[in-house]
Specification:
- By secondary structure, the protein is of the alpha+beta class.
- It contains five helices and 24 strands.
- The chain is elongated.
Length: about 400
């Protein structure tokens, strides 16, 4: 019996003695019976309460994409108290028991077939040899089709938006790989794919893909273009994303190469021009440096700066390929010339070559015979050749008959 019980009995005895001295036997008998009964009731309640610890309270379930945590509170327990957890499911498999001295426990590794079951956790307090009544958590599940108080979902991975022509491209990490080893996707098979939706349009992503990608069209211009994505893996739901928006234009754009190619060509031309200019300048400096070391007689003449200098322009007077040969009778000029006369019986002829023949008899001095009319059709003047009868003409030379 505890000290509290002893003090309660002593108080009842003192009260009984006082009543015995002040009043009659009848009243003392009635009061003594009531007092004894009250003391016995109080002692019984106290003794009972000392053998049964109070139950844990506020049993809560917290779940996310990576696991499930159960936590609770307790009071009136000694430092050596512990807790017993029992995991229950709608699956007829044996219940699982866990002992811990903490006020929370991660039960992620204990969950099996989360895509098809629901669970609850029962917690009891144990202090020495005595155990408290159980306290149950709320029912929870990863299956959105199950009837449960708490539905655990997966968080949709971050989504990247890329603008295109009248459409938005999107991509995100594959949840089948990202959450592969979490309780939600335990016992996942190769046939289980991700099904996700964008404004009612369904897309699919397989476990072989590291990223899931797609696009959504926007045929009309808007100030901003927004998307929302949600999905399912088996019966586990991926929470819908917030509005994912892109501010800008989705009109067709000119490829950047259209601007870069002319720019590169322009820069290349500038570089070549600069290189040519520098090479010319350096070459000029080198020539000037080494010419000053040459003797004066070996230096090239400086260009003339005389304004009276004339430039000769040669005309293109070509010789005909087939010149016409016209014989012309030459008068007897033996009396006026120092050359010996030809025999009187002979007749002297002169042949002229060219398109414009000298059809006139030459009269006057002998200078006319050497230069007259033969410059036409030739690139330089030629001397006249006198021939006598019997001579033959072969090109520009004479050949006498033997």
């Amino acid at each position: 019996m505890t000290a509290f019980h002893t003090q309660t009995l002593k108080a009842a005895r003192l009260l009984f003695r006082g009543l015995r001295n002040s009043e009659g036997r009848a009243m003392r008998a009635q009061l003594s019976g009531v007092t004894v009964l009250t003391a016995l009731l109080l002692s019984g309640l106290t003794v009972g309460s000392s053998f049964e610890p109070s139950s844990p309270s506020n049993v809560t379930i917290t779940c996310d994409s990576y696991g499930v945590m159960v936590a609770w509170t307790s009071s009136g327990l000694s430092e050596n108290a512990s807790f017993t957890l029992q995991l229950k499911s709608n699956n007829p498999s044996p219940y699982i028991f866990i002992n811990t001295s903490s006020h929370q426990y991660n039960i992620s590794d204990l969950l099996q077939d989360t895509g098809y079951n629901h669970y609850l956790v029962e917690v009891k307090a144990r202090d020495g040899e005595y155990e408290s009544p159980p306290a149950d958590s709320k029912k929870f599940t990863f299956n959105y089709l199950q009837n449960a108080d708490i539905r655990c979902n997966l968080t949709f991975p971050p989504v990247d938006l890329i603008p295109g022509e009248r459409q938005l491209f999107f991509g995100f990490s594959n949840p089948l790989l990202l959450y592969r080893h979490t309780p939600a996707l335990r016992n996942l098979t190769a046939a289980d794919n991700l099904r996700y939706f964008v404004f009612g349009n369904q897309f699919e992503c397989t476990p072989e893909s590291k990223t899931c990608e797609g696009n959504f069209p926007f045929p009309e211009d808007q100030e901003e273009y927004c998307l929302k994505l949600s999905g399912y893996i088996r019966q586990t739901k991926l929470e819908e994303t917030k509005d994912l928006c892109y501010r800008g234009s989705l009109r067709p754009r000119v490829p950047i190469a259209v601007y870069l190619i002319p720019l590169f060509i322009f820069l290349a031309c500038c570089a070549l021009s600069l290189a040519f200019f520098l090479a010319k300048k350096i070459n000029k400096k080198i020539k000037k440096k080494y010419l000053c070391k040459f003797p004066e007689n070996l230096k090239p003449p400086a260009p003339s700066t005389d304004p009276q200098t004339t430039v000769l322009i040669l005309e293109d007077n070509r010789v005909e390929e087939n010149p016409q040969v016209i014989p012309t009778k030459i008068p007897d000029v033996s009396s006026e010339s120092s050359t010996p006369p030809y025999p009187k019986s002979s007749t002297s002829y002169r042949y002229s070559f060219g398109e414009n023949s000298l059809g006139k008899d030459l009269e006057g001095n002998g200078a006319e015979m050497s230069t007259g009319g033969l410059s036409s059709g030739y690139d330089r003047p030629h001397a006249l050749i006198e021939i006598i009868p019997g001579d033959t003409v072969d090109a520009y030379t004479t050949r006498r008959a033997l």
